[in-house]
Amino acid sequence: MNVHKNARLTPRGREAMVRSVITEGATRAEAAQRFNSTPKTVAKWVRRFRAEGRAGLSDRSSRPHSLPSQTPSATCDAVEALRRKRYSQAAIATELGLSCATVSRILRRLGLSLLSTLQPVKPRPRYERERPGEIIHLDIKKLGRFNRTGHRITGERTGQSNQRQNGTAPGWEYVHVAIDDHSRVAFSQIHPDEKKASAVAHLKAAVAYYRRLGVTVTRVMTDNGGCYKSYAFRDACAALGIRHIRTKPYTPQTNGKAERFIKTALNEWAYATAFNTSEERKAQLPCWEHRYNWHRPHMGINKATPISRLGLTRNNLLKLHN
Q1: DSSP-based three-state secondary structure for 228
Q2: Nearest Cα to 174, choosing from 226, 238, 210?
Q3: pLDDT tens, 11-48?
Q4: pTM for the full model?
Q5: How far is CA 57 from the centre of its chain?
């Protein structure tokens, strides 16, 4: 039971009230005045305590023992059967001689108010390219900079609004991520913004990183962010011999591998440690990403490590990030 901390008649308060009557000999009116209640309420708790002991002082459901006016279960089953045959609510009401309001209540309780709920859920399309480099997914995650341990760790927001009002807030930084569709090998960089210059710089760095792993990037997939729709990004893709694919608007699942990687990075890197400053967090990104690529089992590829899908066995530590 979720009881207000200042409530008077909690089970403990009820017991004190009851014992003032049973043990101390107070009248119901006296106990009611003392505990800011009514004689009728005092009599109820005394009666329950004598019948059931301390267990009788707990709250009970307010649901009535019987509901004579409730629609019989056989009628509810008939409503459900007709609904599953795609009958409209009005047609069901006419067929069974019920009011539309009754049919509506039954269908709402069954979760069948909409005919669309009877349609089978279309599975999300899942795909994986056959070879590394066929598609590299790109995305950007905005993170707040900080000069002390953040509220996600401490739970304390005091002073944050003052920094914003005084113009002394550290601002933002942007994690540009790339992940190979086949191997799930990832490459990330932190840039000061999400503008076209930063997007182009990350694209070039990512292509160079995958090239050092023996992977030739032929396509990149992005969302419809302004930096990815820019002429500068288009020209960079053309210069690198890369085909640029953009996702359909409002369908982030198309770029789901990048979305999933960002979520993993937030859980295991950005918010996993009580960093003192955002610079400390930034310094730990290459270390975490090396573990992600080389040592962490990936559930999407049968618990293999991403780097194993490139046929690499040697551990070259962090030099690939340099």
Answers
A1: coil
A2: 226
A3: 888 999 999 999 999 999 999 998 889 999 999 999 99
A4: 0.62
A5: 39
How far is Cα 176 from Cα 186, in angstroms, rounded to an integer?
11
Positive/negative CA dihedral, 18, 20, 26, 30: negative
Give DSSP secondary structure letters for 81-143: HHHTTT--HHHHHHHHT--HHHHHHHHHHHT-SSGGGGSPPPPPP----SSTTS-EEEEEEEE
Query: Using CA atoms, how far apart are residues 136 and 179, in angstroms rounded to an integer?
Result: 6
Judge if 19 and 140 occupy the same domain. Answer: no
| Structure token digits, residue 158 | 């005091």
**C-alpha 183 chain-centroid distance:** 26
Using CA atoms, how far residue 25 sits from 19, 29, 49, 285, in Å, is 8, 12, 15, 71
Classify residue 5: in a domain, yes or no.
no
**Residue 222's beta-bridge partner residues?**
246
User: Is 63 among the domain residues?
Assistant: no
Q: Are 201 and 286 part of one and the same domain?
A: yes
Token pair belonging to 263:
């979520």
Rounded distance between C-alpha atoms, residue 15 and residue 10, angstroms: 9
